[in-house]
Amino acid sequence: MAMMWLIPLAAAIEAATGLALMISPQIVSNLLLGADLAGAGIAVARIAGAALLSFGLVCWLGRRSADTTPVLVGLLTYNLLVTVYLIYLAFGGETTGVLLGPTIVLHVVFSLFLAYTCFNEQSSRQITK
């Protein structure tokens, strides 16, 4: 694996984000989107936080697996989908928090590194077969 740091770093960031959403969804919402959450939004944010924390844990535990392809594909899919949606929000102009731009950049960079690593591992497997 070329980028040994990639999975643990992504796992830690996603787990930390999930924990932050579970503890204080209002602060995360304000920083990321510049908007308050109300009622069901808080509950949904906490559920999303639990999912992110779980996703981070699975990625962390899978980082040393003999085959990291499922972890990489999961992280790549997540990062691509989040990137697209955050860019949509940014260009929509309705919800923009102080951390929206940096979060988009982070997800774009992770998507590029993950795509490179995924395709690099796949071509390595093709060569050794």
Account of the 3D structure:
With 129 residues, the protein is an all-alpha fold. The protein has one domain. It is 80% helix and 0% strand. It has helices at 6-23, 25-33, 40-62, 69-92, 100-128. Helix 4 packs antiparallel against helix 5.
Largest sheet data: none
Quote the average pLDDT. 91
The number of distinct structural domains comes to 1
**Topology, number of strands:** 0
Q: What Rg do the Cα atoms give?
A: 16 Å
The portion of residues assigned to helices is over 70%
Total count of helical runs of at least 4 residues: 5
First CA to last CA: what distance? Answer: 17 Å
| Residue share in β-strands | under 5%
Give the overall silhouette: globular
Structural class comes to mainly alpha
Order of helices and strands: HHHHH
Q: Are there runs of 5+ residues with pLDDT below 50, and where? A: none
